[in-house]
Specification:
It is built from 20 helices and 31 strands. By secondary structure, it is α/β, with parallel strands linked by helices. A hairpin with a 5-residue loop joins strand 5 and strand 6. The longest helix is centred in the first third of the chain and has 17 residues.
Length: about 650
């Protein structure tokens, strides 16, 4: 074993084959079919992706499927395409024109349904509004909205006229909005008076007003009236959405764009404090989002599909908007929190709309566990046929709860690995093919060539933890970081020669299944042993008292690095007896080398608004350091203050 490899201690032997009833109707239904597709994607990527791209509408077919090598690749050069046309217009010549595209529910309980025809009309009108405000092909438009239909309308309107959208999650601060406006040189910002979150109004327009003191490139602001709160409207700069929409034409031809035209910029946190503007282009991104939606979620015409992510994150871009709409699916959108007005809200929505495909995050699943089995037990979840997990590795015990309580042991679970930068799912079970193992994202999708390597790029053997890399370009990969191509090359292509690497450690088991071991910078180095924090967290969460855990390293005089565990309990407060019990539990599950040095009980963990635990901040607390870098994605700043009080 390489001295640089990460030691894996997690043992998981349970396996679940796809139910025969699911296999019989699946889009990909045999191991042979998957292997044939995967092999062709590896050996003949141009032929493989070129054939699939024919499922999209092209105004002009491409000259070349793939040009160049990583990091500088282009896909479908010479091809002319439009993402908005592919998500809307091509469905209008079929029966889908009267099919529900979006079923939306607001947190207060208000609802709207937009058919594909309705959505097309609204998108064309708002595209004309943008043109009237001076937006041209190639301009950047910031979208800072709650999870309401207007966000999807605005993004597709931008795509329709070739304006590059930059969506900022509606919980970011004014400073974060200004930073992103300035980096993208945004011309127009679309926002709302406010949004609803746990019964409170989120002050969006107020944050925009504050951001515009430092955003010189923004000329116009469009405001959706959502909550009805009083907001300041500056004459000749600020306009109400409804006023602008009242007298524009519903006819707007989709602009024929180069396949490599930038569809959107999406900012992801950087360790330096300067967010990275990930750029995705049109043809390749759309193909990746469409095909992975069809393969992984096994989409059928009669599915009611719900991905719980906000569109402000890449999951929402790819699997609330572009992927499902490109496939002509019915998409559920919900504006608010999963525990408003009570902890049954998600299950109520599934029962009400007969949701059949449900895609959410491990963080949410662990919260559901903490809230208790009686909540989902109150509702009829029999419409569900497929469950998904996204955002971070799911620990086996949370997987098993999801399988048992939500899926009634009959729904395959697709545990997906991918990133903002990859644009689309890279590793996942195919629900009609792959026997699943709790906690493993299993195998690469067709067209994805991954490997587990050491820093020199040498492939590692079974159960040797190393760096997860992608060895071959794929259509939905990011093309650059906006305005900083050098940082793009340095960040993603300099660690392992000739490979894409974005920070995750992993191992392959003896069956070739991939197990994500967390971020490489979250690896512990205890007395010369490199241990995965995720595996220690999984051991803790397997204890009956624990709802959630985050594990970080801190400087240790003897071992080099000690293990500090931040633990949230299902109920009650921590005690010295429980602390001793948890330490013994981890020793028993993993071994003495993983014995925790510190256990800190906390009612909540610092998380981004997409649900990821910010372990970097916990490392600072464990080491007694001040936190530096980008904290704009933190959902609740008070969590950090409470944790610091405990340390003092």
């Amino acid at each position: 074993m390489s001295s640089e490899s990460i030691q894996s201690t997690l043992q998981e032997t349970r396996s679940f084959a796809p139910p025969a009833s699911f296999v019989s109707q699946a889009n990909i239904s045999s191991v042979e079919q998957y292997q044939q597709m995967w092999q062709r994607g590896k050996d003949d990527p141009a032929g493989f992706w070129g054939d699939l791209a024919a499922e999209l509408h092209w105004f002009r077919k491409w000259d070349t499927v793939l040009e160049g090598e990583m990091p500088n690749t282009k896909w479908f050069t010479g091809g002319k395409i439009n993402a908005s046309f592919n998500c809307l217009d091509r469905h209008l010549t079929t029966w889908r024109k009267n099919k529900a595209a979006i079923i939306w529910e607001g947190e207060p309980g208000d609802t709207r349904v937009l058919t594909y025809q309705d959505l097309h009309r609204e998108v064309c009108k708002f595209a004309n509004v943008l043109k009237r405000l001076g937006v041209r092909t190639g301009d950047r438009v910031t979208l800072y909205l709650p999870l309401i239909p207007e966000l999807t309308i605005a993004m597709l309107a931008c795509a329709r006229i070739g304006a590059t959208h930059s969506i900022i999650f509606g919980g970011f601060s004014a400073d974060a909005v200004a930073d992103r406006n300035n980096d993208a040189e945004a011309k127009v910002i679309v926002t709302a008076d406010g949004g609803w979150r746990r019964g409170k109004e989120v002050l969006l327009k107020q944050a925009v007003d504050e951001s515009l003191k430092k955003s010189p490139t923004v000329q116009k602001v469009v405001v959706v009236r959502r909550t009805g709160m009083q907001v300041h409207m500056m004459p000749d700069r600020d306009y109400w959405w409804n006023d602008l929409m009242s007298d524009v034409s519903a006819d707007c031809d989709a602009v024929e764009l180069d396949s490599e035209h930038p569809l959107f910029i999406l900012y992801t946190s950087g360790s330096t404090g300067k967010p990275k503007g990930v750029v995705h282009t049109t043809g390749g991104y759309l193909l990746g989002a469409m095909m992975t939606s069809k393969w992984v979620f096994d989409l059928k015409e009669d599915d009611t599909y719900w991905c719980t992510a906000d569109i402000g994150w890449i999951t929402g871009h790819s699997y609330v908007a572009y992927g499902p709409l490109c496939n002509g699916s019915t998409v559920v959108m919900y504006e608010g929190a999963p525990n408003w007005p009570d902890e049954g809200r998600f299950w109520d929505i599934i029962e009400k709309y007969r949701v059949s495909v449900f895609y959410t995050a491990p963080t949410a699943i662990r919260a559901f566990i903490k809230w208790g089995d009686h909540w989902p037990a109150k509702y009829d979840l029999s419409s569900l046929r497929l469950l998904g997990s996204v955002g971070e590795p799911i620990n086996p015990e949370a997987w098993m709860w999801y399988h048992r309580m939500i899926g009634a042991e009959r729904c395959p679970i697709v545990d997906t690995w991918w990133q903002t930068e990859t644009g689309a799912i890279m590793l996942s079970p195919l629900p009609g093919v792959t026997p699943t193992k709790p906690g493993s994202c299993t195998q690469p999708l067709p067209g994805v060539v991954c490997d587990i390597v050491d820093k020199e790029g040498n492939s590692l053997g079974p159960n040797e933890g190393g760096l997860l890399v992608l060895r071959q370009p794929w259509p939905s990969m990011l093309r650059t970081l906006y305005g900083d191509h050098e940082r793009f090359v340095q960040t993603y292509f300099s660690t392992v020669p000739g490979c894409y690497f974005a920070g995750d450690g992993a191992r392959k088991d003896e069956d070739g299944y991939v197990w994500i071991m967390g971020r490489v910078d979250d690896v512990l180095n205890v007395a010369g042993h490199r241990l995965s924090t995720m595996e220690v967290e999984s051991a803790l969460v397997a204890h009956e008292a624990v709802a959630e855990a985050a594990v970080v390293g801190f400087p240790h005089d003897i071992k080099g690095e000690g293990i500090c565990c931040f633990v949230t309990l299902k109920s009650g407060d921590g005690s010295e007896a429980l602390e001793r019990d948890l330490i013994q539990h981890v020793r028993k599950q993993i071994g003495a080398l993983a014995t925790p040095d510190k256990i800190r009980f906390t009612p909540a963990l610092p998380k981004t608004r997409s649900g990821k635990i910010m372990r970097r901040l916990l490392r600072d607390i464990a080491a007694g350091r001040e936190s530096v870098g980008d904290t704009t994605t933190l959902e609740d700043l008070s969590v950090m203050a409470k944790l610091r009080e405990q340390e003092e």
